[in-house]
């Protein structure tokens, strides 16, 4: 993988001149629609605020409103200055398969 026999602790040099040390490897997983082939992905931990435009958080469903308010406050205090917007993962997945559902509904009628 990437020309290394063992990738942990190796450094990847990007075309933009950034260097990133590999600190972990995960099994392949779908991060797009299941219709898409699994493709390479890098999850980058950076100290540069300009690259932080989203976070992913698992929250408990019993206090969603309070948790979102807390995350919004932290985003405004520590975030890059952009508007706080959120989307629930199940809604995003549903949007990816909306065309499939519409097509299925057409066939059933």
Describe this structure in words.
31% of the residues lie in helices and 6% in strands. The chain is built from 3 helices and 2 strands. It is mainly alpha-helical and 109 residues long. The chain has a two-stranded antiparallel sheet. The chain folds into 2 domains: 1-45, no CATH class; 54-109, no CATH class. The protein has helices at 64-78, 89-96, 98-108; strands at residues 11-13, 19-21. Strand 1 (11-13) and strand 2 (19-21) form a beta hairpin. It is flat, with a radius of gyration of 19 Å.
Task: Write the SSE topology.
Blueprint (H helix, E strand, L loop, with lengths): L10 E3 L5 E3 L42 H15 L10 H8 L1 H11 L1
Antiparallel strand pairs: 1-2
Helix content: 25-40%
The count of strands amounts to 2
- What shape does the CA trace take? flat
User: What's the total helix number?
Assistant: 3
Strand order of the largest sheet: 1-2
Helix and strand element order: EEHHH
What Rg, in angstroms, do the CA atoms define?
19 Å
**Total individual domains:** 2
Low-pLDDT runs of 5+ residues are none
Mean pLDDT: 80
Comma- or semicolon-separated keywords:
mainly alpha, 109 residues, two-stranded antiparallel ribbon, 2 strands, 2 domains
What's the gist of this structure?
By secondary structure, the protein is mostly helical. It has 3 helices and 2 strands. The protein has a two-stranded antiparallel ribbon.
